[in-house]
Amino acid sequence: MSDLTPAVGRIALYSHVFVGVHDFERALSFYTPLMALLGNPLRFCDRARPWAGWQSQPGPRPLFLIGAPHDRMAHAAGNGQMVAFLAASRALVDRAYALALAHGGTSEGAPGLRAEYHPHYYGAYFRDPDGNKLCVVCHEAEPGL
């Protein structure tokens, strides 16, 4: 098997995604209801480190993690970086966007179709309280279309 041959049985592209935050408690208050709405249960929370992780369904991976940067330097949101969460429906995208804004997020693009990506791409864009850019997207056609 060469280095370019895919591993047998691999089902996920990512092990985990880690997003740095400055104010852990504020970030935890933002992400906890968002992850619950999207159906991703909290797997762990360690305030002493600080970091927390949510498990995708079905689990156990990939994980979505937030926390203080490992190098203990100040967090800085990246330009051109974004995490996109998958939603099962367009209504869930709408609800996630509203919930994010209600918990301190800022809009980067209201929910809607983005046909430039593909005909059924329905997404919403926002930033968490630390400035990290996020998206919630549904790739499915609206039922009945």
Task: Spell out the blueprint of helices and strands.
Elements (H helix, E strand, L loop, with lengths): L15 E5 L3 H14 L4 E5 L4 E5 L7 E5 L15 E4 L3 H13 L3 E8 L8 E6 L5 E6 L7
Helix pairs in contact: 1-2
Overview of the structural elements:
This protein has 145 residues and is of the alpha/beta class. The radius of gyration is 16 Å and the shape is globular. The mean pLDDT is 90. Helix 1 (24-37) packs antiparallel against helix 2 (90-102). It has one domain (16-70, 81-138): 2,3-Dihydroxybiphenyl 1,2-Dioxygenase, domain 1. It has helices spanning 24-37, 90-102; strands at 16-20, 42-46, 51-55, 63-67, 83-86, 106-113, 122-127, 133-138.
Supply the key terms.
four-stranded mixed sheet, 145 residues, 19% helix, 2,3-Dihydroxybiphenyl 1,2-Dioxygenase, domain 1, single chain, alpha/beta
- Please give the alpha-carbon distance between the first and last residues: 45 Å
The name of the CATH topology is 2,3-Dihydroxybiphenyl 1,2-Dioxygenase, domain 1
Number of domains: 1
What kind of sheet is the major sheet?
4 strands, mixed
Strand percentage: 25-35%
Low-confidence stretches: none
User: From the coordinates shown, what is the CATH architecture?
Assistant: Roll
Q: How big is the Rg?
A: 16 Å
Share of residues in helices: 10-25%
Structural class: alpha/beta
- CATH homologous superfamily grouping: 2,3-Dihydroxybiphenyl 1,2-Dioxygenase, domain 1
Which whole number gives the mean pLDDT? 90
Strands side by side in the biggest sheet = 1-4-3-2
Number of helices: 2
Order of helices and strands: EHEEEEHEEE
DSSP E strands, number = 8
